Amino acid sequence: MSQGAGDSRSLLLLAGLLSVLGLSPTSAIHVYTPREVYGTVGSHVTLSCSFWSSEWISEDISITWHFQAEGSRDSISIFHFAKGQPYIDDVGTFKERMEWVGNPRRKDGSIVIHDLDYTDNGTFTCDVKNPP
């Protein structure tokens, strides 16, 4: 990560946009995230994920967040919401620093990452599935 001249403690987190997931040509989910999110080392940041579907929100809705570290080709799953329950992965650097703040009934799949570190710099992707 390159450091700015003014503040060497700032981070740039990229929140990925997974624009459309569809199960058929007529029903799709549109997922919206900010293009860039900035945070400061030691603070917390909310990674917003909202979605829109022309279908009702199923009890089987799932939301998964993935993280791809800056300079890496690999993406890892860091959070999953399924069957009405949030599941924070119990391994990796985010395991004790992540908080679920979303509400699928309100079409919100947001998470908070606490105690930011330089190693959190990268791309985060929100993936939403709403099976019939």
Structural features, described:
The chain contains no helices and 12 strands. It is mostly beta strands. It has a single domain (27-129), classed as Immunoglobulin-like. Strands 4-1-12-7-8-9 form a 6-stranded mixed β-sheet, with no helix packed on it. The protein has a 3-stranded antiparallel β-sheet with strand order 2-3-6, with no helix packed on it. The model is unreliable at 1-10 and 16-26 (pLDDT under 50). It is a single-pass type I membrane protein.
In short:
Helix content is 0%, strand content 48%.
Mean pLDDT: 83
Strand content: over 45%
CATH topology tier name: Immunoglobulin-like
CATH class: Mainly Beta
List low-confidence stretches: 1-10, 16-26
Biggest sheet, strands in spatial order? Answer: 4-1-12-7-8-9
> What integer value in Å does the Rg equal?
15 Å
CATH superfamily: Immunoglobulins
Biggest sheet overview: 6 strands, mixed
Architecture per CATH nomenclature, i.e. the level-2 architecture: Sandwich
Shape: globular
SSE-based structural type:
mainly beta
**Straight-line N-to-C gap:** 42 Å
Provide the helix percentage. under 10%
Number of helices: 0
Tell me how many strands there are: 12
Order of helices and strands: EEEEEEEEEEEE
What's the structural blueprint in terms of helices and strands?
Elements: E1 10-16, E2 20-24, E3 27-32, E4 36-40, E5 45-47, E6 50-53, E7 62-69, E8 76-82, E9 85-88, E10 98-100, E11 111-113, E12 122-129
Parallel strand pairs: 1-12
Antiparallel strand pairs: 1-4, 2-3, 3-6, 5-11, 7-8, 7-12, 8-9, 10-11
